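input
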Amino acid sequence: MTDQSRNAPDERTLTAAAQKGDQAAFGMLVRLHSKRAYAVARAIVTVHEDAEDAVQEAFVRAYEALDRFNLDQAFGPWLNRIVANAALDLARRRKVRTTDELHESLAGTFRDPGEADELRRRLADALTKLPERMRSVLVLHDIEGFAHSEIGTALGIPEGTARSDLHHARQRLRGMLRDLRND
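output
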């Protein structure tokens, strides 16, 4: 453990201070959770700029709702739910995206030098054909490493639904990419 992490206040202390108007404490919460918040947003909207917009909107919403936050809860899951809602709102507003935009944005997500452009294109195309929630669950679990319970909390669905959506998303993806398999 570093001296800096030993001296850093815990999340509950930061949240309590932020609730009392301490902007520096809220800034520390933002730094603590920004990567995870981005991962949640990116899984839902799939476009880098939209994910950044959703995260920014979510932090504004969280700041405005701090007075209603229960300190007996963990801040991260509460924030991830706000991020997921902000991303879903943004996705609804910007429903139509061109395939070219999606292809370029997803190329950064699947950086494997051995992958051919055709595989990346096909995978990006297949992901866009999945229903929004299935795509979100798949990306959050398989790419970002979220647990089923975290996905359920972030998306506002039961853990079992997250598991089921993941299973069905993988099945659909396998079906769409069946001709690429070498078994």
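quick obs: DSSP finds ten helices and no strands in the chain.
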